[in-house]
From TrEMBL:
Gene3D superfamilies noted in UniProt: Nucleotidyltransferases domain 2
Protein's UniProt name: PaREP8
Length: 128
């Protein structure tokens, strides 16, 4: 995983446990936002590795589609809706919901990590 994204996700998991223990809804919302930020940063890193610089979430979604990453685009958009909008902004979530969404974030981070590793190995000159 990417170090920044991994740190964000680890912080989310620790805060999720604390939120479950305390019932603190604001902490739960913060958990959701950190998990969303991990996804957003990972997708941005992949796009940069592909030579694409973006400034908005919409540009990220559009470029993922253009580059043939339709499933990643769908996962990105779903996490944006569920974690960023529904949970963080609107407070429509509970710990079980956020825990499930974090499992989806982990899947996205693993996929993006694998894709960027493939890109890096293609850039390396062949060694005989």
């Amino acid at each position: 995983m990417f170090s920044v994204e991994e740190i964000l996700l680890d912080a989310s998991m620790m805060e999720l446990m604390e939120s479950k223990r305390s019932g603190d809804m604001m902490r739960l919302r913060d958990v959701a936002e950190k998990a969303w930020l991990a996804v957003s940063r990972a997708v941005e890193a992949l796009l940069v590795a592909l030579g694409v610089e973006v400034r908005s979430y919409r540009e990220k979604r559009d470029w993922l589609r253009k580059l043939g990453y339709e499933a990643l685009r769908d996962g990105f958009a779903a996490r944006e809706k569920f974690l960023h909008i529904d949970c963080f902004y609107d407070g429509i979530c509970d710990a079980e919901f956020v825990e499930y969404e974090i499992s989806k974030v982990e899947e996205i981070l693993r996929f993006v990590d694998e894709e960027t590793k493939k890109l890096r190995t293609r850039e390396q000159p062949s060694k005989l």
